[in-house]
Amino acid sequence: MYLPSATESAVERENTTNKEVHRKNKEKQKQDNCMATVDQKVTIDCPWSIYSTIIALTFCIPFNAKHSLLSAGKRKYVQVCVQNLSELCFQLSDNSLKNSADYTDLQLVPLNLESQQVIYSKQSIFFVWELKWTKELPLSLQCLFSVSFCPATSEEQSFTLKPFIYEFQVENFFTLYHVKTEIFPPLGAEYCKTGSLCSLEVSITRLVDLSEVDRDEALTESD
């Protein structure tokens, strides 16, 4: 989102002291907004002038997103985490995850029950989809996540904002290992109790052979 700042007057452009005050006010405005910002500069060249005009633009990033591939047995899930970076509260709605490659035998089943959610300042919300396929999984999956948002306060709902979009790619669908853990009580005891020394058994079973890349990584990280 671009939040325009107040333009400088002619007096401020000529007076160095006023320029310093304007710079501090602009920094204070940026701190009050409390969003992650990206500063860009646009240079305008006019054919009838030897001087270039530089315009500073500040874009505020309200959200940050990241994804992960989850696996439970033979079931696989795609999880998208959306984090609110600002001090504002937003209303999220119409979240969707689409496969840009359009595989016909692959479905993304949403597990998010609520269609609208309020995401508060510095809060993270997770969206999960289950992968269901009929033949076999593709080698890679191009995903496009989108969610509509608007300020949660009634005074600011007049803003018309484009949906937040996050594109990512998921690869290596194969489950390499099956991990099972179990805690056993001490010898001769029926239950685990506080203060007693119990044993933890971890079983790791390799399900498929490692690829060349994974094998190289396993050798380098064996220590």
TrEMBL record:
Highest taxon of the lineage: Eukaryota
CC terms in the record's Gene Ontology section: cytosol; TRAPPII protein complex
Region called Disordered, residue ranges: 1-30
GO biological-process terms attached to the record: early endosome to Golgi transport; intra-Golgi vesicle-mediated transport
Skewed-composition ranges (Basic and acidic residues): 10-20
Transmembrane feature ranges: none
PANTHER family, A to Z: EPILEPSY HOLOPROSENCEPHALY CANDIDATE 1/TMEM1, TRAFFICKING PROTEIN PARTICLE COMPLEX SUBUNIT 10
Protein known as: Trafficking protein particle complex subunit 10
Source species: Mesitornis unicolor (brown roatelo)
